Amino acid sequence: MPATSPTDGNPGDTGDPLAGLHDALLAWLPTQRWFPAKGRVVAGLRTVSHAVVSAPGETPTVEHAVIGVSFADAADTGGSTEERYQLVLGVQASPPADVEYAVIGRRGEDVVYDGLADGRISRLFLSLITENATRGPLRFVAEPDTEAPIVGPGRPLIGEQSNSSVIYGERAIMKLFRRATAGLNPDLELHRALGRQGSHEVAPLLGAIEGEIDGEPMTVAMLQTYASNSADGWSMAAASVRDLLAEADLRADEVGGDFAGEAHRIGKTVAAVHLELAAALGTHPLDARGASEIEEWMLERLDRAAAAVPGVAEQREAIAAVLRGVSAAEPSTLQRIHGDLHLGQELRTPTGWLVIDFEGEPSKSLADRVRPDSPMRDVAAMLRSFDYAAFHQLSEWEQSADDPDPQLERRAQEWADRNRSAFCDGYAEATGTDPRESPELLRAYELDKAVYEVLYETRNRPSWVSIPLRSMRRLLTPAGRGER
Ligand SMILES: Nc1ncnc2c1ncn2[C@@H]1O[C@H](COP(=O)(O)OP(=O)(O)O)[C@@H](O)[C@H]1O
Ligand SMILES: O=P(O)(O)O[C@H]1O[C@H](CO)[C@@H](O[C@H]2O[C@H](CO)[C@@H](O)[C@H](O)[C@H]2O)[C@H](O)[C@H]1O
Q1: What residue numbers bound the domain in which 473 lies?
Q2: Is a pLDDT exceeding 90 seen at residue 172?
Q3: Which residue's CA lies nearest to atom 16 of ligand 1?
């Protein structure tokens, strides 16, 4: 299979098969949910690698490419000026009508489109995985000792995603990682480790696609069992909050959609994942050096957020003092963790909860995402998510009303407290360690997450930035700290 090397992306450079498409790609990228840099100033685009994956004569032609997007504003991203993304492209003169929505542009007579929209391409990838095939630079690998799913076309998952997935007949789901990074993706790595540990808390892994970048291995995609009949924790929690806010006279425990039982079960599930990850990949004591390293990452992120958001800059010193609480913490341990846990990363199946998406925070480098950290980071992230579920509806209402309704605010806080507390109870029951017994550590991690969220919302959902800003104020107010 022909594979082309990097070029400078000059449209006149005939060595780059994507050169004529650069403008079309620059217009298309910001329309994609997975493209995280919507608010940033794009300076240019180049083709990092390109290869044809389909066999000669196969229709459509399938290409795999990595593009590098450079930005004019490197300041708030830790100085990186280029981010790399993976594309799977379908190329055909007259593609079927159902891929029209995924068209990127034209190359000569051909239409070039997002390949995952085409069931023929997702079907090809699934069959290549079951055959352990190699095509060009891509290696398709079935997970040993797993049952091959029935091969058929996949349907693209529509929804909020940092990557792009296709679902195969409610049997399997394949995720194409959009960020192109050298190394083993932690989502694949941790699913593999947990699967081999016999975990019931993750969907079994079925296979992967591996490629290469800068002469090093890179995870292209991951295939896992699809949990049919599942609902995600965010939708369930949001429905519970809606019920409570609609019932002015009932307490959270009296409303039909009370979520506390589920929050308790989620606490136990997260605890089980932590215990399994520790057993599979080990633990280290959190010593003074480790604590000061963690504080440094937190402070560095705080400075980026302060540079971008005035509400954070005003509170910088007070926030920094709380983040330094990591050093004051009781002896504790570091281990591999989930790294970006929230209610949307939990799936309720008929038999219990599954945890998905172990990739870590999308904006962090791979080295930072695989660094052992305190399990408290995941606990704090879940507590933040209960706050989000409780207050997202109010924050939307408040945009159209003059004043916040104190009665509704109290009820939302009641929901958050009840579910945060049920989660901690479940976690403590399964691990024997109650996270609330390390208040400084928990508060530092919660505040660090809120700082991340302020930056995330400013870039992606500005109308939601009031949710983490409100929590930030609560975490800095002595009276608010005790609320769990
Ligand atoms: N094993 C699975 N079974 C059923 N649905 C899944 C599974 N894994 C992911 N999903 C669905 O796909 C969505 C996106 O998955 P996720 O791993 O969070 O992707 P991303 O990294 O792109 O955010 C989830 O919100 C969930 O709805
Ligand atoms: O799931 P992703 O890996 O894409 O995570 C990113 O997006 C999340 C939003 O979808 C974001 O989570 C934040 O919003 C959630 C509600 O939508 C809330 O439950 C979380 O607590 C909050 O952090 C996540 O931070 C981001 O990395």
Answers
A1: 231-480
A2: yes
A3: 357
